[in-house]
Amino acid sequence: MKNATPRLSGLDLNLLVVLRELLRERHVTRAADRVGVTQPAASAALARLRRHFDDELLVRRDGRYELSPLAAQLVEPLDEICDGIESLLTTTRGFDPSTTRREFRIVMPDHVVAALGGPLTGQLHATAPDARLQVVLARAALAATIEPTIRNVDAVVSQPTSRFRIPEMRSSSLFSDRWVVVADAGNPRFGDEVADRAALATASWVVPYHDDAAFPSVVPVSRQLARLGIRPRVAVRVDSFRAVPHLVAGTGHVALIHERLARESIRTLPLRVLTWPEEPDPITTRLWWHARHDDDPGHRWFRELVVRVGREQAPTVPRPR
Q1: Range of the domain at 29
Q2: Same domain for 222 and 239?
Q3: How many contiguous H segments (helices) and E segments (strands) does the chain have?
Q4: Which of 172, 200, 166, 160 is nearest to 302 (CA)?
Q5: Is the residue at 190 inside a domain?
Q6: At which of 22, 55, 74 does a domain end?
Q7: 208: cis peptide before it, omega within 30°?
Q8: CATH number of 57's domain
Q9: Residues 6+ apart with CB under 8 A from 209
Q10: Which positions fall inside the HTH lysR-type domain (predicted)?
Q11: Are residues 147 and 190 in the same domain?
């Protein structure tokens, strides 16, 4: 009778690394590039894995691969196994950024990528030339999926939300900002300094990451609007912060965005920056990671690098007098 529990000797453990990238990328060529093997080698590994698990793992539908039900179940334990192996190997030696070939994965919203991306990749290359960085753009579902996300990446850059109150999550401050209103420079509904509350209540809005099903939602903009008793008439919603000023310029719409982004945008767009009618909540952007990384010297080095770059490139916005 066949043993129901496969033995470790029956599978090349190097295939687990390939499998992790295949499940992440859902694309054989990209997975091969990330592992550093040829596309035929990755295809051969996938074939071996399919035989081992007696499952397709990646199923082609509409011209792209999707995870099979079994593959979806493998994602989380596979990440834990691979991270555990990497942690085990790093405990036998100190971390040396000058020789590491490690890949770091970080989730960031697009406006943070614009502010920190260049300096971060520059310093990473200067100090760890063979290390790799994967930047994943934050999506609308980040808050709802933060628990599995934080386990599967090195770090997340985000404002805190109530859903981030997970005991295993750690964080460090990066920078702060404040909310301002942006309107087209020719919009006759608004003056030059403070946005009129009544005009805001009847305006049409561009709102990043808006969810029509829940208001107020976990999206920080939603909370500020709710404090003024404004349920926005949303004309445009977009999964991006940096796109918002472009969708306001030349229209009758308004938006609530980070002041740093607003000041950058008025250099090239015909926009007016207005103060929020009451003192808004401060915007605090933090670096988040899972507690299991606390004793990993490579991870500690990486998060210290991100924090240093964040504080250098995006210092706290001074409060107006």
Answers
A1: 10-74
A2: yes
A3: 11, 12
A4: 172
A5: yes
A6: 74
A7: no
A8: 1.10.10.10
A9: 140, 219, 221, 237, 239
A10: 11-68
A11: no
The single-letter DSSP state of residue 5 is: S
Asked whether residue 163 falls in the same domain as residue 306, the answer is yes
Q: How many CA atoms lie within 13 A of 219 on its CB side?
A: 27
Nearest partner of 82 among 15, 140, 149, 145, judged by Cα:
15
Amino acid at position 185, single letter? A
Q: What are 60-107's pLDDT values in tens digits?
A: 888 788 888 898 888 878 877 776 666 665 554 578 999 998 899 999
Residue range 94-148, pLDDT digits in tens = 789 999 988 999 999 999 999 999 999 999 999 999 999 999 998 877 877 888 8
- As for how many domains the chain has, the answer is 3
State the pairing for strand pair 271-275/179-184.
antiparallel
DSSP state of 273: E
Task: Specify whether 184 is located in the same domain as 165.
Answer: no
- Which residue's entry shows tokens 């509904």? 189
Spatial distance between the Cα atoms of 181 and 179, rounded to a whole number of angstroms: 7
Whether the per-residue pLDDT at 319 is higher than 60: the answer is: no
Residue 5: predicted pLDDT: 46
186 and 250 together in one domain? yes
Total length of the chain: 321
**Are 294 and 146 within 8 A, CB to CB?**
no
Give the whole-angstrom CA distance, residue 35 versus residue 20. Answer: 10
Q: Does 265 lie in the same domain as 209?
A: yes
